[in-house]
């Protein structure tokens, strides 16, 4: 019965997502220039799909690993890491260098550097703290502050023209998505999803806790290490594609849990991706139709996410 209820709610989310997609694609469109409109709007929807799936899945896996539903990978300073990596490339090599100006090389530079550094830093952090959430959050906050201070120092002594060029790449946006990079990102996401299929199937067991998972035959340390690498790579792909969006994962992962009220990650992952698509399409409509692209979508997501984060903190406190 519960499985049937979950499938009905998933179906409702699918229908809602398709309605929002159709509205975004065809609202206020001149059919004489149909191909032109689609060439602009379809890549944005593709970027929204990839971003919602990457951040939603990564956040759900991360929350299960550390057994806490109000924490996201971005709260550990991953966004700050992206900012300092991207700023460092422009600072030392210049905005006209091939590493910053070439769309393919820039994407892979961000992806490889962020994936490698985040994996090394956070794997060490989790191992040293023995997955203690309090210490992990504290260390993550300190590292985020350090990365931001480093990035701010470079920006202050950077050439103003270089800074203007850099600034456009540091703010999350779906307005200038490159279709070629979108295809590469999609292939990477499909490959990683298939690669992690076996580990994702044991997430329901891992959610029971380390001792129970080991007793049920899970190679806990190996699976956790592999999943953490996957979390880092999914976040890196989404961030390198559209820029950092801090609270998106928190919003869509927890809304998916509240809508389905289940522990099964096969349902939760799909629901988080669908909720993420709805949230991002609504945000993009607000940015384009109300504010004429003057305010980036990350501003609205971070404001809503900050309020939602406080609500979750107070709600969890009341349950204790």
UniProtKB/TrEMBL annotation:
Keywords of this entry: Cell membrane, Membrane, Transmembrane, Transmembrane helix, Transport
Coiled-coil spans in chain: none
Entry membrane topology: Multi-pass membrane protein
Annotated compartments: Cell membrane
Membrane-spanning parts: 12-33, 45-66, 81-100, 107-125, 131-150, 170-196, 227-255, 267-287, 293-314
GO cellular component, one term: plasma membrane
Lineage: superkingdom: Bacteria
UniProt xrefs under SUPFAM superfamilies: ABC transporter involved in vitamin B12 uptake, BtuC
Sequence similarity: Belongs to the binding-protein-dependent transport system permease family. FecCD subfamily.
Record protein name field: Iron chelate uptake ABC transporter family permease subunit
Source species: Campylobacter californiensis
Lineage of producing organism: Bacteria, Pseudomonadati, Campylobacterota, Epsilonproteobacteria, Campylobacterales
């Amino acid at each position: 019965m519960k499985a049937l209820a979950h499938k009905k709610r998933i179906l409702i989310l699918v229908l809602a997502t398709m309605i929002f997609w159709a509205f975004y694609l065809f609202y206020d469109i001149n059919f004489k220039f149909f191909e032109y409109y689609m060439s602009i709007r379809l890549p944005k929807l593709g970027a929204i799909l990839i971003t919602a799936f990457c951040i939603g899945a990564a956040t759900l896996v991360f929350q299960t690993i550390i057994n806490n539903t109000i924490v996201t990978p971005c709260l550990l300073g991953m966004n700050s890491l992206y900012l300092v990596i991207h700023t460092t490339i422009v600072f030392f090599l210049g905005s006209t260098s091939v590493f910053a100006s070439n769309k393919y090389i820039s994407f892979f530079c961000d992806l490889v550097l962020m994936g490698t550094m985040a994996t090394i830093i956070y794997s060490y952090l989790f191992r040293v703290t023995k997955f203690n959430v309090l210490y992990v959050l504290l260390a993550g906050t300190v590292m985020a502050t350090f990365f931001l201070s480093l990035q701010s120092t470079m920006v202050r002594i950077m050439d103003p023209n270089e800074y203007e060029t850099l600034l456009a790449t540091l703010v999350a946006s779906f307005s200038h998505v490159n279709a070629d990079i979108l295809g590469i990102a999609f292939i990477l996401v499909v490959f990683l999803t298939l690669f992690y299929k076996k580990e994702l199937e044991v997430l329901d067991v891992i959610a029971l806790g380390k001792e129970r998972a080991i007793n049920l035959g899970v190679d806990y340390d190996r699976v956790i290490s592999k999943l953490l690498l996957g979390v880092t790579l999914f976040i890196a792909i989404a961030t390198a594609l559209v820029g950092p969006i801090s609270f998106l994962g928190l919003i869509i992962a927890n809304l998916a849990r509240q809508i389905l009220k289940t522990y099964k990650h096969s349902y939760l992952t799909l629901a988080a991706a669908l909720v993420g698509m709805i949230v991002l399409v609504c945000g993009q409509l607000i940015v384009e139709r109300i504010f004429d692209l003057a305010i980036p979508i990350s501003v609205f997501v971070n404001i809503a996410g900050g309020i939602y984060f406080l609500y979750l903190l107070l709600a969890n406190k009341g349950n204790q």
